[in-house]
Specification:
- The chain is mainly alpha-helical.
- 65% of the residues lie in helices and 0% in strands.
- The C terminus is likely disordered.
Length: 239
């Protein structure tokens, strides 16, 4: 019948617009992992297994392993000569350069850089304890003026006390007097304090290269997870 002819005629599908295959988005891309710890971090990662075995031979186990390993690593790193340390510094620089390049590509492809804060940033009390580590190197602040004030603080305090000031009035009076004396000082005399600050800053930076922060709960959990991953990989290889 003529009314069936439209159904029997060949049909052609017409598609308008571009058809593209699915592409990777920021949801499917993994953010590059930033190398941390500088040259010491590279040394620790490379020597961790050997140091851990050495610690365990001493009868140390459980949660005491992590801090013992980092402490031993710090001692060994300090004993390295300049040439050996230079090798780790070079490797760290190479890793940092690769990270920067990978991060540029990650962002260019729509990736979003996450915050650099620690995973346990929500635990304010734990972060506070970490910041107040009494064994952490003290960063010099205040520049040359701070060195000048520290050296003359007691003298200025005695001077304002002799003027009849007491209690809470002493502190602001000392800082005002120190500021006035500092402004009146010649550049030649200021240079001695500037040199002192440079030396303190250099000593601080050297101390930070080998400083290992105390273990936190998050660090312990992360270390346990990495150990489990290592054991899993070893098990797979043995199979």
């Amino acid at each position: 019948p003529f009314w069936l002819m439209p159904l029997l005629l060949p049909c052609r599908l017409v598609v308008t617009g571009d058809i593209s295959l699915p592409v990777a988005t920021s949801m499917t891309m993994e953010e590059p992992k930033k190398p941390v710890g500088g040259a010491f971090g590279v040394f620790l990662n490379e020597e961790r297994a050997g140091l851990k075995a050495e610690i365990e031979k001493r009868g140390i186990g459980g949660k005491k392993v992590f801090p013992a390993v980092t402490k031993l690593a710090s001692e060994r790193f300090k004993q390295l000569d300049a040439k050996s340390k230079g090798g780790f510094e070079t490797r760290y620089a190479s890793m940092k350069a690769k990270y920067d390049k990978d991060m540029e590509a990650f962002i260019a492809n729509g990736g979003e850089k996450k915050s650099g804060k620690r995973k346990n940033r929500g635990n304010a009390s734990e972060n506070k304890r970490a910041k107040k580590d009494p064994n952490a190197p003290k960063k010099p602040v205040g520049g040359a003026y701070s060195c000048f004030l520290a050296e003359n603080r007691e003298t200025f305090k005695a001077e304002v006390t002799n003027q009849g000031l007491t209690g809470k009035a002493i502190f602001p009076a000392v800082t005002r007097l120190a500021g006035a004396r500092w402004k009146a000082m010649s550049d030649k005399n200021k240079k001695d304090y500037e040199d002192e600050h440079v030396e303190k800053k250099k000593a601080y930076e050297e101390a930070m290269e080998s400083y290992v922060p105390p273990e936190t709960k998050a660090d312990a959990e992360e270390d346990d997870e990495s150990e489990k991953d290592d054991e899993s990989e070893e098990s797979d290889e043995s199979d």
